[in-house]
Amino acid sequence: MLKHFGLKVCLVTSLALGMLGTVATSAASAQYDRRDRAQDWQIGGSLGFYSSALGRSAVSLGFTGAYYFTDNVRLMPRLSLGFDDGLTLFTLMGDVHYVFDIKSGPIGLRALKPFAGGGLGINIADTGGNTYAGFTIALAGGLDYYLTRGFSLGTEMDFMIPITLAGDNFIFQWQVVTAKYLF
Q1: Phi/psi class of residue 128: alpha, beta or left (left: φ > 0; alpha: ψ in -120 to 50)?
Q2: pLDDT digits (tens, 9 = 90+) for 53-90
Q3: By CB atoms within 10 Å of each CB, which of 5, 70, 158, 174 scores lowest?
Q4: Which CATH number describes the domain made up of 5-182?
Q5: Does residue 138 contact residue 95 with C-beta atoms inside 8 Å?
Q6: Of the candidates 106, 105, 110, 109, the residue with the CA atom closest to the CA atom of residue 34
Q7: Residues 178, 154: contact at Cβ < 8 Å?
Q8: Which residue, 1, 166, 12, is CA-closest to 83?
């Protein structure tokens, strides 16, 4: 199961660095104009990986939605699927994030939106013969970089503590590349 994990991490990291390089080179030309986010909706997707205390790992694909209650507070339900040899992971979370607004500095810096938060959810793991399910608590943090008023690229890390998932003390999830659209 782990023999291909290093290759997968390298591929995902290369993809992420390529996308972030594109962000960096286009930052000077991005016409970021701050917009109020209160009562806006957001959808997005992500690519990354899971890793657990027991050495299990999987490439993950994620889907998110968000509703902004204020410019800085969003409710963000998300679904993540993880796949590797003999392992399938399913995570359904409900997060609340506080989005930090950088109000001064160059346009490129104001387009950066760091966030922190946490949530509750469900993890289901299928190891090919055994299925484990349980509730989890998550702590999250990351960055969104707005290339336009509505489109952002970013990254997110989650430290999940399963409450009832047998065997795992924690699950780390890094969504290396996220893409979100605000409307």
Answers
A1: left
A2: 767 789 999 999 999 999 899 999 999 999 888 778 89
A3: 70
A4: 2.40.160.20
A5: yes
A6: 110
A7: yes
A8: 1
